[in-house]
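Weekly puzzle thread! Below is a chain. First person to post its structure in token form gets bragging rights.
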Amino acid sequence: MLKTEKDFLTSIIKMNVETQDVPGIAMAIWEKGKIVYNTAIGYANALTKEKLTTEHRFRIASQSKTFTSVAILKLARKGYFELDDDITKHLNFLNNSYRGITIRQILCHRAGLRNDYSKTDYWFKKNNFPNATQLKNFLKTDHPILQANSIFK
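Winning reply:
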């Protein structure tokens, strides 16, 4: 990565921190297995004025959807499953209310699954995330809240 590219990125990050009511931004770019750009600008805590560093960690939140989707598509391309497979074919612990929902529908947010209600509010309530056994037990009794392909959710 050229110095001018790094300077440009740094100026964009600074501008966003200053103009977008963002306390701080950390950014890293990997290229061919090496970090080629790594910076932190602004505050980790705006109230205490603690400076943000490249060592601070952030929740990945919805960005994980992109990585998960790419991984699923790679596995489908390699023949591990078809995108139109019923999810109960691969997750046999799910109850019958999940029958007919496909991997493709989940990836497109058209499966009717819930994602935003009190039992799954781990971030804001600072609850522990369920382990694999707890999640399976939850899904055995839970059910989709909408009919698949009826609405984007």
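Puzzle host: Confirmed. Bonus trivia for everyone else. The CA atoms of residues 60 and 67 lie 11 Å apart.
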